[in-house]
Specification:
single chain; 276 residues; two-stranded parallel sheet; globular; Enoyl-CoA_hydra/iso
């Protein structure tokens, strides 16, 4: 029955190389650190990176040598948005490309929630978009200048690809509606007060603190870790099943029917982002 214990999976050396342009993967004593990046600087939103994030959760989840996962960014920003990815309006995309983006957008969240069976720690190391990837982790640490805002409505698009969902399920529907409509900054201290994050720390203390928590987790048995994560991640699994497709399809419908396109909408509302 050894196949039940070991199974077939890629070794870290293999999938580290596969995703090296988008994330740096390092493991020590079972603790895997996944650092999102672009040319070793802050990660930049783009469709290739988007696809890589979807796929990496599968390989990480399949590898039994990964015992605890830490997800963080690079430098002083969590991620940099890139409006140019919408230079061609979504309604002008080939239908196969539209479908591929739909799957990438849904699987990016689904694969993280359903394919990772080990404890997870997210570090929002500065401002940036798509903080849901860190918010979905069991424990979330952040720096004071983090910003958990959802930019979609301010930019003229319904919020459908994950951040609004995490806001609804962490801070409640009333607060989520307020922050989705207004785009008001949710800094690190506010995120802790509202329940989006657990600790707000100086940037240089984030990774040491995450490693400290991870080592504490490693003191428990593998079965205890896995089954505790299963309990603690269950609300996210329920949220994805119940609402993720609904959110994403509403955003997709607007983008498909919008004649101006997401980039034109964003430029029209650029003054709303001057402090970001």
């Amino acid at each position: 029955m050894s196949f039940l214990k070991n199974g077939r999976h890629e070794r870290l050396e293999s999938y580290r190389e596969k995703y090296k342009d988008f994330m740096a993967l390092e493991r020590e004593d079972g603790i895997l650190e996944c650092r999102l990046h672009h040319e070793d600087g802050p990660a930049v939103h783009g469709w290739e990176a988007h696809h890589a994030w979807r796929e990496v959760w599968i390989d990480i989840g399949r590898d039994p040598e990964n015992e605890v996962l830490i997800v963080t960014g690079t430098g002083d920003r969590w991620q940099i948005g890139n409006p140019e990815v919408w230079k061609t309006p979504f309604r002008e995309w080939d239908r196969e490309e539209q479908l591929a983006l739909y799957h990438d957008s849904s699987r990016l969240i689904e694969n993280m929630v359903f394919n990772i069976d080990i404890p997870t720690i997210g570090i929002v190391n500065g401002p940036g978009t798509h903080c849901e990837l860190a918010t979905l982790c069991d424990i979330t640490l952040c720096t004071e200048d983090a910003d958990f805002f959802d930019p979609h409505f301010l930019g003229g698009t319904p919020p459908g690809d994950g951040m609004a969902l995490t806001l609804q399920r962490t801070i409640g529907p009333k607060r989520a509606a307020y922050y989705a409509y207004t785009g008001k900054k949710i800094d690190g201290h506010t995120a802790v007060e509202l329940g989006l994050a657990n600790e707000c720390l100086p940037r240089e203390d984030l990774l040491p603190r995450a490693r400290e928590i991870a080592r504490m987790m490693m003191e428990r048995s593998k079965m205890t870790r896995h089954l505790t994560h299963a309990i603690l991640s269950r609300p996210w699994r329920q949220a994805v099943v119940e609402d993720m497709g609904f959110h994403l399809m509403h955003q997709s419908y607007e983008m498909t029917t919008n004649r101006e396109g997401a980039l034109a909408n964003l430029m029209k509302n650029a003054h709303r982002f001057r402090d970001r």
